[in-house]
Specification:
Order of helices and strands: HHHHH
Structural class: mainly alpha
Number of strands: 0
Largest sheet: none
Radius of gyration: 16 Å
């Protein structure tokens, strides 16, 4: 491809589409597994693309928005906050992509767990738990969200990252 704008548009769109399809398929097989407090949203493994290309930032954000929009267990608040959390995490991942441990962007992989843990943990505590805000309860909610994110990124995301590194088509997208 000669036009880098078209390349980045296509890559971001492919990441968004893949995120949506994986999330939808998971919801069909395991209902509510992508929307509960401890969520193992398999599509989150795609966040490692943010360590490869800036196109992943908007692709992941759009994918999250659409996936939340079509999920039965989410509300408009989730559409906004989930997308915001993904945007922040993806930007942080891209900024930290060169900091590696054992040739893996482990610090980058922590970003979705931290950001989603805080934002979605707050959302759960403030809007879904009765009785007002309790810091201890927030820590439990944030920890559950972060744990699910971290598990997916470490178990699926890191091997995916190593695979992506070996595929020549992704080398041109590293700008």
């Amino acid at each position: 491809m000669k036009n880098s704008k078209v390349q980045h548009l296509v890559i971001g769109a492919m990441i968004a589409a893949l995120y949506i399809v994986i999330n939808y398929a998971q919801e069909m097989i395991f209902p509510a597994s992508t929307t509960m407090a401890i969520q193992f949203r398999l599509a989150e493994a795609l966040c490692v693309f943010a360590c490869i290309t800036p196109s992943a930032i908007w692709g992941l954000t759009l994918g999250t928005f659409v996936a939340n929009f079509v999920s039965m267990g989410t509300l408009p608040l989730d559409w906004a906050l989930g997308s915001l959390a993904t945007l922040i995490a993806a930007v942080c991942m891209y900024q930290l992509k060169n900091l590696k441990l054992f040739t893996l962007p482990l610090l980058s992989a922590l970003m979705p767990a931290l950001v989603n843990g805080v934002i979605i943990g707050l959302e759960i505590e403030i809007f879904y738990v009765e009785g007002g805000f309790h810091f201890g309860s927030f820590l439990i909610n944030a920890g559950c969200v972060a744990l699910g994110e971290l598990a997916v990124l470490m178990v699926l995301g890191m091997p995916l990252y190593k695979l992506i590194e070996r595929i020549p088509i992704f080398h041109y997208a590293k700008q």
